[in-house]
Design goal:
The protein has 422 residues and is an alpha/beta fold. It has helices spanning 12-22, 61-69, 84-95, 99-113, 116-125, 144-153, 170-176, 198-212, 255-259, 325-338, 389-406; strands at 4-8, 27-32, 47-48, 76-78, 132-133, 137-141, 167-169, 186-190, 194-196, 215-218, 222-228, 231-237, 241-243, 246-249, 269-278, 292-294, 299-304, 307-316, 353-362, 369-372, 379-383. Strands 4, 6, 7, 8, 15, 16, 17, 18 and 19 form a nine-stranded mixed beta sheet that branches. The two termini are 26 Å apart. The relative contact order is 0.22.
Length: 422
């Protein structure tokens, strides 16, 4: 068992890993180049939603992606670039868009996320303070056929103890959220799901780790890992060198830059997502009360204390923080189509409004990388959580702590073995 561990990356996954290790008595050093506000752990919808266990690659997605690419305001945007690694990634992604992989991936993610709510309660019990809401998640659809199909798909989750919600008509959905427009023909309400304020979760975890004795090395960038005889010996940063008994790399979309020089394949693309915050929320005839997913538009609406956040868009344009105005306009337009009384021409600049972006760490099969890196006995990866990092961070952390401290690979992370990419 390692007595000291260096965790690289202070997003929600790295922070949860650090806490799980610290609680097992390990001396933890956490290194983060930020905290980077442009990291996904700050810029996300804040949903804790184990029921949304489907990996991104899905049957039919290839055709849909091609159709989406023809529309500038569709939820997906691929900015072409000549980069062999990206083209290989796209090809592998498209290969994963089949029913068998999708079902196996859904089952694996559902199994990992099964204890999520219990683990979130445990974070709070361990002294992590964060803003949390227990208003469920309302899925809203404009297309009844799609709604029926997706609702039937929830059956995959039943064996994992997820309750299947009843199908709602448009009026029943409006009874829950009166501001939904008539264009919404129905939906379903996942009553047990929760939401958190992402920035509060990151700051709460950091504060708790600081109090617990974890060494926090913030504003320090890892520039390399030195290894010998199948083990990482030293983490090299822009400020110095840290001797390592074991290392956990949880650097989100930046992970390949850190581990690939060691010959480890970590095919992660940045799936840029956008968030628009309104504090206070825009004036509506009836304020939005609960998180809503506008399914066809892939827009997430999250009411938080004194604020409303819109989040969405999947932009494959490499690892950058550039904001494209057309994506912002599309998010607003789609929201306006589904929310009654949404202010036309609402400003996206000025006091109380913030537009920001963050990279989701996306693997080509849509599954995270959790476990020992191939060829290294003391280097673990905890990354690639794509759209579900906030949800899966505590369960990932438990598994990593078991791996590093207990020397055992928990069954629920076997499907996420980083070695599957060779
Ligand atoms: C718009 C949007 C909405 C989303 N909504 C949800 C949601 O509702 N629910 C959900 O579960 N998930 C959601 N996600 C996904 C979720 O946000 C991510 O999966 C998760 O935040 C990934 O966390 P992470 O810790 O792996 O990576 P990150 O948050 O990217 O953190 C990586 C960290 O590594 C650090 N780092 C990078 N390089 C180095 C280096 N060389 N040295 C030191 N440190 C380094 C960075 O500074 C950063 O802090 C959403 C994402 C987006 C973008």
């Amino acid at each position: 068992m390692a007595r000291s561990v260096v965790v690289v990356g202070g997003g929600v996954v790295g922070l949860c890993c650090a806490l799980a290790l610290e609680r097992r008595g390990v001396a933890v050093t956490l290194v983060d180049a930020g905290p980077r506000e442009s990291a996904a752990s700050h810029v996300n919808a804040g949903w804790v939603v184990p029921s949304l266990a489907e990996p991104v690659p899905a049957p039919g997605l290839v055709g849909q992606s091609l159709r989406w690419m023809l529309h500038p305001d569709s939820p997906l945007s691929i900015i072409p670039r000549i980069d062999p690694a990206f083209l290989r990634w796209l090809l592998a992604f498209w290969r994963s868009c089949n029913a068998r992989s999708h079902r196996a991936g859904t089952e694996a993610i559902a199994a990992l996320g099964a204890r999520t709510m219990e683990l979130y309660d445990d974070l709070r019990a361990a002294g992590v303070a964060f803003e949390e809401h227990r208003d469920g998640l309302l899925f809203a659809y404009r297309d009844g056929t799609l709604l029926g199909h997706d609702h039937a798909g929830l059956e995959t989750l039943r064996p994992f103890g997820y309750p299947i919600p009843p199908l709602l008509s448009g009026d029943e959905a409006r009874a829950l959220e009166p501001s939904l427009a008539d264009a919404i023909v129905g939906g379903f309400w996942l009553e047990r799901e929760r939401s958190v304020r992402p920035e509060s979760l990151v700051s709460g975890l950091l504060a708790r780790l600081g109090e617990g004795g974890t060494e926090l090395r913030l504003g320090e960038t890892v520039v390399g890992l030195e290894a010998r005889d199948g083990a990482v010996r030293t983490v090299v940063t822009d400020r110095g060198r840290i001797a390592a008994e074991a290392v956990v790399v949880a650097a989100g979309a930046w992970t390949p830059r850190i581990v690939e020089p060691l010959g480890i394949r970590a095919p992660i693309e940045a799936g840029k997502g956008y968030a628009i915050d309104f504090a206070p929320p825009p004036p509506l005839p009836t304020p939005l009360r609960r998180p809503i997913y506008l399914h066809e538009a892939r827009v997430a609406i999250t009411p938080l204390d004194g604020m409303l956040r819109l989040a969405g868009t999947m932009e494959l344009s490499g690892l950058n923080a550039r904001v494209r105005p057309e994506r912002v306009a599309a998010l607003l337009r789609r929201t306006g189509e589904a929310v009654r009384g949404w202010p036309e021409g609402i400003a996206t600049a000025g006091p109380g409004v913030r537009v920001w972006v963050g990279p989701r760490p996306l693997t080509p099969d849509g599954l995270p990388l959790i476990g020992w890196a191939k060829g290294y006995r003391n280097l673990a990866l905890a990354t690639g959580h794509s759209m579900l990092g906030v949800t899966l961070a505590p369960a990932t952390a438990e598994a990593i702590a078991e791996l590093v401290c207990g020397g055992r690979t928990p069954a629920e992370i076997r499907p996420f073995d980083p070695a599957r990419f060779g």
